[in-house]
Amino acid sequence: MDFLSSLNISGSGLTAQKLRMDIISQNIANAGVTRTENGTPYRRKMVVFSSINGSSFRDMLDRTTAVKTGGVQVKSIVDDQSVLVPVYNPNHPDADEEGYVMLPNVNTAQEMIDMMSASRAYEANITTFNATKAMILKALEIGR
What is the pLDDT of residues 25-83, one digit of tens each? Predict the structure, then answer.
């Protein structure tokens, strides 16, 4: 694998994790939204990743000499279809006939855990990128 492919793989991971952190931030910001543009409560969003070339890790190992690029990409952003949280509040403008308001299915504690995970993955990609950059510089020094 050449150096530029390594940098591209790290770069794709950085881009994917940044989008994941953006979506998590959006979830936290909308944790109390009971009515969106379409009239329903906000639903938690999740990022789905996939390999850029669509192969499994095992396939990548078997074909290391034939594959020049790799990495991760965002396949889609999906709505979490878990149940919404009913809260009794008959004075709320979005309450139903029985007085229940449906709150978003966003658990801020879980979102913070996901944010820490995305942040750690982002840091790991930065570390890999910097290590590759250092190897490139050392390789260039050999030629002097």
Answer: 999 999 999 999 988 999 999 999 988 765 666 666 666 655 556 788 889 999 999 99
Distance CA 103, CA 41 (A): 6
Where do the H-state alpha helices sit in the chain?
Answer: 3-29, 57-62, 108-142
Structural contact between residues 108 and 31, judged by C-beta atoms closer than 8 angstroms: yes
Question: DSSP class of residue 82?
Answer: S
pTM of the model: 0.82
Which of 64, 59, 74, 77 shows the shortest CA–CA distance to 13? Answer: 74
Q: Report the distance separating Cα 135 and Cα 110, nearest Å.
A: 38
The residue type at 57: F
CA dist., res. 45 & res. 119, Å (int): 18
Rounded CA-CA distance 113/99 in Å is: 32
* Residue ranges of domains in the chain: 3-81+107-142
What is the rounded CA–CA span in Å between residue 69 and residue 76? 21
